[in-house]
Amino acid sequence: MIRRGRTEGWLKQPIDTLPTWATFHGVAFNGVKIGPLPGFEERGSTVIADTDLEGGKVEPLLVIPKELIISRQNIEMFARADRHLREVLEALGDFGRTTRGTKDVGVLNPLTEYIKFLPDELLPTFWSEEEQELLSGTTLRPAVRAKLNSLLREFETLRTATESIGWCARYWWDEDTGMVTFEDWMRVDAMYRSRALEFPGAGDCMMPCVDMANHASGEGTAAIYETDSDGNGLLLLREGKKIAAGGEITITYGDEKGACENIFSYGFLEDAVTSAKVMFLDLDIPDDDPLRPAKIFVSTAAPGFRIFEKKDHIEWESDFIWLVVINEEDGLDFRVRQTIDGKREIQAFWKEQELDTVKLREHLQEDQAWDIYRLRAMVLLQQRVETQIETLQGTQSELREASIREGPWKLAVQLRQLELEMLEHTFNTLERQKLSLLESEAVQRYLGMATNEVDEEVDFS
């Protein structure tokens, strides 16, 4: 049972007044209550069994009226009746019509009171600079930087789009009377990111009271969430599950999520976690590649590669790597052509055939030099993994400064160790795959040709 990370004392309303709010707004509690788990008060509030419960023999533990769900559909419905909300959404244009854009606009309704029961999430975007430096060498550090930059751009988009609206200028942006700050935007992002769940029939949304449930993976997951035929939110005890009175009702935030994502979105790692599970490492096209500018222009793939656990071994995947490892001598070519409207664009070709770079791997697999391309990829990936290992090992600190809080310190130390172990495992896996490919007939033939042409070691990178 894991409580999302939180700062101390940000609850604006005591949690014991939540039942009054819930009853007034039609939320049904069946054999459960919300509050701190006895003995684990530091974890914050959670959903607790108020009586002995058994899956399949009880009604839904929680029923949330569809009008209380924070979803894109409901935001659009609220906008029809609320002129101020409608003005903001129209000013935001396409951004206001996305789940990300609509979630953050406030309107006087029951949810205005509900958010006062929610704690402030201690996600890495709220860590101090010193605490974020603990993440140097991990995959979380660039993710946090990118997120903060993205939030700043979003905040400026909101300000620019709405500062011409009279009431927004007065209550949001005025130097004397304005109340909206960048920290507010960060706080709402953290609230949404750590509590939004994908509900069947409703998509990504925040479901009051259900979002109080803590996470437990595997067999530890006690309940599931869904919507009924009328669109109301439900929390249901899993078939066969038995929870004694006073026990915690847990849900899953996603068992397949890696350590980095769990800290990034929820601010915690499960106590029993033993693996980083999933990592994404960035990858760049070498500066000395003459086709580098054209490759960057035509690529639509994320510039990196994903390593992940599958059963008891490590696998990797990347669309980008194949564009990196091939060159003009292999059959890659770029041509500039003029479009109908007079603009010029770069088009990729593979062996004289127009190329969709998303399907590049399919073309390479059909090529007789496929093992050679794979070997190049293995070498490049192994070099990148080795660099990441060296960075992690070179930035670790044994001492915790007094200004660094215990929570971020523990999470950073745990993440660093998990990622280091996974990287070392990945390096060894790539080494075995590389040695296996060296026995390939195509590679042997390529090695022989290269040895005859140049009296030096072959560089597969």
TrEMBL record:
<dbReference type="InterPro" id="IPR046341">
    <property type="entry name" value="SET_dom_sf"/>
</dbReference>
<feature type="domain" description="SET">
    <location>
        <begin position="30"/>
        <end position="254"/>
    </location>
</feature>
<dbReference type="InterPro" id="IPR001214">
    <property type="entry name" value="SET_dom"/>
</dbReference>
<protein>
    <recommendedName>
        <fullName>SET domain-containing protein</fullName>
    </recommendedName>
</protein>
<dbReference type="GO" id="GO:0016279">
    <property type="term" value="F:protein-lysine N-methyltransferase activity"/>
</dbReference>
<dbReference type="InterPro" id="IPR050600">
    <property type="entry name" value="SETD3_SETD6_MTase"/>
</dbReference>
<dbReference type="GO" id="GO:0005634">
    <property type="term" value="C:nucleus"/>
</dbReference>
